[in-house]
Amino acid sequence: MESQKVDMFIMGNAKYFEGHQIPQIRKRLLELDDDAWLNLQSIQFKDPTTSLIVSLLAGGLGIDRFLIGDTGLGVGKLITCGGFGVWAIVDWFIIMGATRQKNLENLYRVLL
Fold this sequence. Notes:
It is found in: Membrane. The protein is an all-alpha fold.
């Protein structure tokens, strides 16, 4: 794929990934053919900031985990009321990283 398209994609979507993942993503995107560009544009990434806000407001109900696609963990948090509050507080610190990891997994699923 053209480096200009790859750089444009990275500039527009860098907030959805960890900083150390960007060079690896760029390398994988440069190896793709131009036909994959349409598939790449159709990906809906989850915003880590939105996940954090949802976690702060309704994390005890597991809504933050449902939002990023962790259905099993969401059910677990819902049944235990956020792990009796402890799990909900821990998620305040890790939900943004978990969201970025899910975004990377979704990107790689489309790239393969």
